[in-house]
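Data deposition worksheet. Section B asks for the primary sequence of the deposited chain exactly as it was used as input, without tags or linkers unless they were present during the calculation. Section C holds the resulting structure in token form. Section D is free text for depositor observations; keep each observation to a single sentence. Incomplete worksheets are returned to the depositor.
Section A, Depositor: J.P.
Section B:
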Amino acid sequence: MLRKRLLAAILAPLLLVEGFATAADHAESPGADADQAADLADVFLFVSPENNRRLVGSITFGGRPLPRSRIDQTLPCDPRVIYVLNIDRASAAGTFDSIPEVKVVARFGTVSGTNACGAVQLENVPGAGGTFIGAIETVFTSSTGLKAFAGLRNDPFFFDAEGYNGMIAAFDAAPPAAGYLVTSFGLGSRARRDSFANRNVAAIVFEMDIDAVAPAVNGIRPKLQVWATTARRVQ
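Section C:
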């Protein structure tokens, strides 16, 4: 089984999450980039804005910045690919062992007689009451009312690739008087450039019961670290 690991990118500050983004994973090598169904992009974890008793987890994949080709029309799907969101709780001392206490597993199924994605199955979602399945591009719920979604969405990742390349090129010359960031990125003098603006990414999104994910001990919830993996069944 092929495996790939991505450290968590945290969308919003959480007291129970250890820090902010430590990595993102876009603009891959040609081999990984060609395998859109298994090419992880980002991981997000945040408190639901609709219900503070729920956490929202998301795995995105197949995202590509300009000038690479888009995935706007078709969800990259391979029913052999298994997506796993790993959740590791800190010990009472606040340390992690990088062994997940929770492993949420997602996989796609195709429409009978075709290669097109038709549904996604979620297993081991904390608080879901068991495995549940729903059609892609729709919001569906578990038996306990937790919501989930899988499909194409606008990529939430922000990155100014043009500005980054300009800053790297500036390192070959003498330091500019105004500093590298101001000179290369033009901060304060123009609108932001986002190489992922209006470009889609495939996303698997699901709610989790916060008490099942991070049960409080003496009124204190443990910190969490999360990462995602993909694996492909060989048959």
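Section D:
DSSP finds four helices and eleven strands in the chain.
The two ends are 10 Å apart (CA to CA).
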